[in-house]
Design goal:
This protein is an alpha+beta fold and 629 residues long. The protein folds into 3 domains: 13-133 and 180-236 and 410-481, 3-Layer(aba) Sandwich (Rossmann fold); 241-343, no CATH class; 495-628, Mog1/PsbP, alpha/beta/alpha sandwich (Protein Transport Mog1p, Chain A, 3-Layer(aba) Sandwich). It has 21 helices and 21 strands. The strands form 4 sheets. A 9-stranded mixed β-sheet has the order 1-2-3-5-4-6-7-10-11, sandwiched between helices. A 7-stranded antiparallel β-sheet has the order 14-15-16-20-19-18-17. The chain has a 3-stranded antiparallel β-sheet with strand order 12-13-21. Helix 2 links the parallel strand 4 (86-89) and strand 5. The longest helix has 19 residues, at 151-169. It is globular, with a radius of gyration of 24 Å. The protein starts with 21 loop residues before the first helix and ends with a strand.
Length: 629
């Protein structure tokens, strides 16, 4: 469901009360050295300590079947200053915290990790912890895209696959015991085994749902909580998903209409949206490219798949600036962006069985005919069903809970809510409602963020670090400096040719040179939060030496680059990094091409809400014009 990509703050020495020593904490459980893969291809590694804890599958029968809970600890880099650990609660339900740490959260936690251990638990049913993954569905993700199916057809197909999955898993697992209450018990069992008396919680999306269950059962062990994309089963997020996506898309339409360049490029975006849907009354066979591997896959695009892809794009602030472009292109019969989004979803499936075990027991079980009748039809996403779970839940075996088990939770534990105004699945309204039940809380609203905030906002990282250090924090004014979206194809840059002793190239007009490092020449725009450009010609044949030379140049100017993805095709390598300036979280894309002894390298970097909209056009213009001298 929810998925789902800092300046150090001064902390008073009086607040740095030491935790029990590492040996005292961890006598109860054996830990071993391990590495967490970082980035889409896992080229980098994060050193960690890994462990496994046996817990009852059924807590009411503690002597019965045991399951193994896998977890990892990224130790604080400054152990003498160590504060309470941060237990990261991943989204889904059904996503692996350990896997997604390397894919999404690694750079976001880099500064927090200075004084906090980061504890990652593959919750039961996910990752290596008694996984409830339905391979009968997950393994056919790419294959399914080849066929023209409506959402109803896909649900019908998956019902049969679920039956086979349930029959297979039932030999080793009972899905009825995979609930948020039991996940909270597992989390506390890990806490106790590691000897932590007090912990911090960070929950994202479904992780906020789980964090609230943990607070109800074990709140006495919590120092402070940060909830990003807040939701609980009482919010009925699945029934409201289309309506909340309507609201997010309308915000994009309104923002584009208020932006002169976007309005000029897409003068009637809503009409283009309707044209795109009308055109897709007849499905189209296209090819889409994986953003992780560069491989191409066949995709049958129809109206429902286009809407599903568009809704997924709204989840990520870094993609929202490309939504008008995707709509306008679809109105002309071009489906490059939505096809890539659908492929990305097929590449990283969550644990379907785990997802159903939670959602069916804690949400869908309490649907009534009257409730379903009250949900109005979505304006923009009405072709997608309001209720996509009930038929699946009728097949799946899940817990039978009482209404009291899923009542809204109250707490006086210090809590920071992070909410993105463009969030299409856990809107700000959910956080506002939750804050009324949390007596000691503060809400930070980000005007240009969507579903995932911490990886994309330096303000969010500063707030979280300061809040864990001092939970009385109430100043959230930095949200006013949130970076607005740049709209792809809307702002056309002019270019001028520059010449150096080693190359000539076209660069955006008005961008000034800011120096050279390791043979790479750097330029920047004049914006308050500038865009950056780096250009180099290297006397190398390509491959690893070329990548190393370019990375050395970048690292000398931009400290602590974290690789997110790398694609190699026909000698061209595109690598994506994230890093911080003192102003904002940046994403950078490096393109290299080895050709004889005149290899080319072009680097473009911008704040996350700008990068995706600009990268392709700038990269094509600059890289295509780059010539050695």
């Amino acid at each position: 469901m929810f998925r789902g990509f800092v300046v150090v703050l001064a902390i008073s020495a009086a607040l740095l009360a030491p935790l029990p020593s590492a040996s005292a904490q961890r006598d109860a459980i054996s830990l071993s050295d391990c590495e967490i893969p970082i980035g889409a291809q896992g080229a980098a590694k994060q050193a960690a300590k890994c462990g496994v804890l046996s817990v009852p599958e059924d807590y009411s029968a503690p002597e019965g079947r045991q399951i193994q809970i896998h977890f990892a600890i990224v130790p604080a880099r400054s152990p003498s200053l160590r504060r309470e650990p941060i237990f990261h609660l991943e989204g889904g339900p059904g996503a692996s915290a350990i896997e997604y740490y390397g894919l999404v959260w690694y750079s976001a936690y880099a500064d927090l990790n200075e004084v906090h251990d980061i504890v990652l638990i593959d919750q039961r049913g996910t990752g290596k912890s008694a996984s409830l993954q339905c391979t009968e569905i997950a393994d056919l993700g790419f294959e399914d895209l080849k066929y023209d199916r409506s959402t109803e057809d896909e649900i019908a197909e998956n019902i049969e696959r679920l039956r086979a999955c349930l029959a297979r898993l039932s030999a080793t697992n009972d899905p009825r015991h995979y609930t948020s209450a039991n996940l909270a018990r597992d989390t506390d069992a890990v806490r106790a085994a590691l000897g932590y008396q007090k912990i911090n919680l960070f929950g994202s999306s479904y992780g906020t749902w789980l964090a609230q269950f943990y607070l109800r059962q074990f709140g006495q062990h919590v120092n402070a909580v940060v909830l990003e994309g807040t939701v609980g089963p009482w919010d009925r997020p699945f029934l409201l998903a289309n309506l909340n996506a309507d609201q997010a898309l309308q915000r994009v339409f309104d923002l584009c209409a208020a932006d002169e360049s976007c309005k000029r490029a897409f003068p009637d975006l809503e009409s283009l949206f309707e044209q795109a849907l009308q055109r897709l009354q007849t499905s189209v066979r296209v090819n889409g490219t994986s953003s992780l591997t560069g491989k191409s896959y066949p995709v049958v695009m129809n109206a429902e798949r286009f809407l599903s892809a568009l809704r997924n794009m709204l989840y990520q602030g870094s993609l929202i600036g490309s939504v008008p472009q995707a709509i306008a292109q679809a109105a002309r019969g071009i489906y490059t962006l939505p096809a890539a989004v659908l492929i990305a979803a097929a590449e990283q499936p969550i644990s379907y069985g785990m997802n159903l075990s939670v959602v069916c027991a804690e949400d869908v079980a309490f649907y009534t005919p009257e409730l379903l009748e009250r949900i109005p039809r979505s304006r923009f996403f009405g072709r997608l069903p309001n209720d996509s779970y009930s038929e699946l839940c009728a097949v799946w075996r899940s817990a039978e809970l009482e209404a009291a088990d899923v009542l809204p939770i109250t707490s006086d534990v210090p809590t920071l809510f992070l909410a993105g105004e463009f969030d299409p699945i856990t809107p700000t309204d959910f956080a506002v409602s939750a804050q009324l039940r949390f007596q000691n809380s503060v809400l930070a609203r980000f005007p240009y963020q969507a579903h995932t905030i911490l990886p994309n906002s330096l303000c969010a990282r500063r707030l979280v670090r300061a809040f864990y250090a001092n939970p009385s924090l109430r100043d959230t004014s930095c949200t006013a400096q949130d970076v607005p979206f740049a709209f792809a194809e809307a702002q056309r840059l002019s270019y001028e040719t520059i010449t150096t002793p080693t190359f000539s190239a076209r660069v955006p007009s008005g961008w000034r040179a800011i120096g050279e490092s390791s043979a790479m020449h750097f330029f920047r725009s004049d914006a308050d939060k500038p865009e950056f450009l780096g250009i180099a010609i290297y006397p190398l044949a390509g491959g690893a030496p070329l990548q190393a030379a370019a990375l050395e140049a970048l690292s000398s100017r931009f400290a602590r680059l974290f690789e997110q993805a790398r694609i190699a095709q026909l000698g061209v390598v595109v690598a994506q990094y994230t890093f911080n300036t003192h102003q904002e979280v940046y994403i950078g894309g490096l393109i290299t091409f080895g050709f004889g002894t005149q290899s080319r390298a072009v680097w473009y970097a911008a704040p996350a809400n700008i990068f995706t909209a600009r990268f392709s056009s700038i990269a094509v213009e600059v890289f295509g014009s780059l010539l050695p001298r």
